[in-house]
C-alpha cells in the first residue's frame, strides 16, 4: 500500500505491481515495457523497484538500466521499504537545522546512525558520508554492522566514501563526540534515551524517522 499510495500521490495514472520478482526476470519485464510503446510514448512509462532488501533493489536497478535499448528507455527508480526517500528527507531536515541554527553543514561532522544496519540507516549513512560527514553505523551485532558499513562504503558509495561501524553496547561512548544522531531502527524501539542525550556534549541535531512510540 505504501508504494502504491506514493505513486498515486506523485501523479501516476495507474500502477501495476509485480511481486516476488527474481533478478533473472528483470530483463524480460523491462523489455516487455519498453518495446510496447514508441520512444515518445515511453515518456508515460516508468519502473519502480521496491521490496525490502537494499542491495537486491540496487542490483535490480542496475539490471533494469542495462536492459534498455536506446532509444527505447524509461525512467527507473528504486526505493526499497521507502528507505531512500525516508533517509533523504531525514538528512535534508538535519541539514536545514544545521544551517539555520548553527550556520554549518554536515561537512566534517561526526554522525552516528543508531539501528543503522537496516535500509533507512544504510541510505542515511551513504548520503551523509557523501556530504562530507564522518559516519558510523551502530548495530546490536558488531559483525553485521561491519558488513553493512563495508557495503555502504564500497558498493553503494562506489569506494568514494568511508562508513565505519560500532556496537550498540558502545553507543554511549560514541555519543560523547557525536554532532548528529540518526535513529533509524525498527518501529517501536527506543534507541536514544534522555540519559544518552545528556552525555552528548556536542550534539547539535538528533533525528528519528519513526512516528511509533516510544
Automatic annotation (TrEMBL):
It holds the Pfam family Mpt_N. Gene3D superfamilies: Methylene-tetrahydromethanopterin dehydrogenase, N-terminal domain (3.40.50.10280), NAD(P)-binding Rossmann-like Domain (3.40.50.720). Residues 1-81 form the Methylene-tetrahydromethanopterin dehydrogenase N-terminal domain. One of its GO terms (molecular function) is oxidoreductase activity. Keywords: Oxidoreductase. The keyword Flavoprotein does not apply. The keyword rRNA processing does not apply. This is Methylene tetrahydromethanopterin dehydrogenase. It comes from Methylomonas sp. LW15. The gene is mtdB1.
Amino acid at each position: 500500500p505504501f508504494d502504491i499510495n506514493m505513486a498515486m500521490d506523485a501523479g501516476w495514472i495507474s500502477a501495476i505491481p509485480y511481486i516476488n520478482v527474481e533478478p533473472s526476470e528483470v530483463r524480460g519485464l523491462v523489455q516487455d515495457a519498453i518495446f510496447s510503446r514508441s520512444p515518445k510514448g515511453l515518456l508515460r512509462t516508468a519502473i519502480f523497484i521496491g521490496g525490502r532488501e537494499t542491495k537486491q533493489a540496487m542490483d535490480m536497478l542496475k539490471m533494469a538500466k542495462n536492459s534498455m535499448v536506446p532509444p527505447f528507455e524509461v525512467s527507473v527508480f528504486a526505493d526499497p521499504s521507502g528507505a531512500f526517500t525516508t533517509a533523504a528527507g531525514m538528512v535534508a531536515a538535519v541539514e536545514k537545522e544545521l544551517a539555520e541554527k548553527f550556520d554549518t553543514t554536515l561537512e566534517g561532522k561526526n554522525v552516528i546512525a543508531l539501528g543503522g544496519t537496516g535500509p533507512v540507516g544504510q541510505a542515511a549513512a551513504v548520503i551523509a558520508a557523501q556530504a562530507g560527514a564522518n559516519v558510523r553505523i551502530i548495530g546490536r551485532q558488531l559483525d553485521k554492522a561491519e558488513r553493512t558499513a563495508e557495503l555502504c562504503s564500497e558498493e553503494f558509495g562506489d569506494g568514494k566514501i568511508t562508513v565505519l561501524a560500532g556496537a550498540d553496547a558502545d553507543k554511549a561512548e560514541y555519543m560523547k563526540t557525536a554532532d548528529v544522531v540518526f535513529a533509524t531502527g525498527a518501529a517501536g524501539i527506543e534507541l536514544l534515551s534522555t540519559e544518552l542525550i545528556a552525555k552528548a556534549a556536542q550534539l547539535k541535531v538528533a533525528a528519528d524517522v519513526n512516528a511509533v512510540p516510544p
